[in-house]
Amino acid sequence: MTSVKVGTQDEEPTGKGTTLPGGGQDGGYQRGLGARQIQMIAIGGAIGTGLFLGAGKAIAKAGPSLILAYAVAGLVIFFIMRALGELLMYRPVSGSFSEYAREFMGPFTGFVTGWTYWLFWVVTGITEVTAAAQYMTYWFDIPQWVSALIFTIILYGVNLISVKVFGELEFWFSMVKVTAIVGMILICIGILTIGFSDAGDTASMGHLWQDGGFFPHGIKGTLMTLQIVMFAFLAVELVGVTAGESKDPEKNLPKAINTVPWRIAVFYIGALIMILSVVSWTKFEAGVSPFVEAFSQMGLQAGAGIVNFVVLTAALSSCNSGMYSTGRMLRDLAANGQGPAVFTRLTRSGTPLFGTTFSAALMLVGVWINYQWPGDAFTYVVSFATISGMWAWIVILICQIRYRAKSDRGELPVSSFRAPGAPWTSWFSLAFLALVIVMMGIDKDTRISLYCAPIWAALLVVAYYLLRARNPDAFRRTPPAKKEGTAEKG
């Protein structure tokens, strides 16, 4: 696959760390992600199988009002990303979420955040690589486990070579998704204006308010889709994990975050408006991609194969991101004494070998479990990804609120990328996420994820106290100025 040399942070040239503005460090990582790659990682993080597949179920539940759900949720996502951006420009560090949680919410919250975000990506990686294997059966009659094994090994190898290779692969994965959506929008515009294809005679913007109205199932139907909508946006925060490996983070990260509104406007709201104008919402159902169904209604049968390829790349993109982030989160935890010390080691190219290997091994176990017992139990585990991913957003918002209060008092440096309207926008976002959790509890299909959360929390509590008893110093709240020697008071 690839030859790697492993060393600790002090043994390798890359391990000394580079001081960043505001006291952050690269922690031994190589700054191999340029502006082009950061932009596409940010774009790709907002486009996944949640849009290509999950939107079908959401359309059936909410009808055209799903457009409004995505608009409001997209605004909240922008507030979350601006809150994250403010923290990143205060102190851009690898493992950002758990680092900020440790600083502003205490060692226990940092411990919980790091391990929960790691679990989120492991679970996501398991589901996505399995989904990718299922998509391969569209063209080839090969066992599902063979495709899953091949994809996992390839992505594992890519993540061990260098962060530049990861960034380049993610760039092209994202390019495929973006091209597919833009192409769909242009085709729909052509049908609405010129009237070609089988849908030309019936296509009309009137589909958005006819066929039962904009809210065919009432406000409740719209609210019940919020969990699906938020799941589609999971991973948009991945740009924060890249902070320690970004070239010129003060320039590239804010630029990527500021593109969130137009990304959501084009890829979600724009795509849905076009699809639901060409094809009535009554034609869509759960389990069927709205893109595939739209192509079918247009009489463009070749579109099904194209969309299958796009969904395949979306799944591989998510699994690729999962391997990238899990290795970094494990190394961050280990570097703070909250995980096995072996996870701190980097290869000569600056990649966390053991953390990535451990996570990839668990993803393979998950594929085997899914192959042996493909029943509802596995689906319930997948639903846990949503609540664990939302935990990272909640932590980001609370940390930003506490950071803003301290910076306003002059206790910490003022960020060069302050979130507009904060802290009120952060409080509004927290209230919205609370609403989503309530709706998850009401919906019997997603309620199981709330049952899993206390079990995971109990395991973390036990692990925390056991580790703290063995190494109390690792769980003391240490200000960045003392820990890194670079941050200064405002």
Automatic annotation (TrEMBL):
Transmembrane segments: 40-60, 66-84, 104-124, 144-166, 178-197, 217-239, 260-282, 302-323, 353-371, 377-403, 424-442, 448-467
Subcellular location: Cell membrane
Entry keyword annotation includes Iron-sulfur: no
Topology of the protein relative to the lipid bilayer: Multi-pass membrane protein
Pfam family, one: AA_permease
InterPro entries per the UniProt record, alphabetical: AA-permease/SLC12A_dom, Amino_acid_permease_CS
GO cellular component, one term: plasma membrane
Region (Disordered): 1-25
Domain Amino acid permease/ SLC12A: 38-468
Taxonomic superkingdom: Bacteria
Keywords assigned by UniProt, alphabetized: Amino-acid transport, Cell membrane, Membrane, Transmembrane, Transmembrane helix, Transport
GO biological process: amino acid transport; transmembrane transport
Family, as annotated: Belongs to the amino acid-polyamine-organocation (APC) superfamily. Amino acid transporter (AAT) (TC 2.A.3.1) family.
The protein, known as: Proline-specific permease ProY
Gene: proY
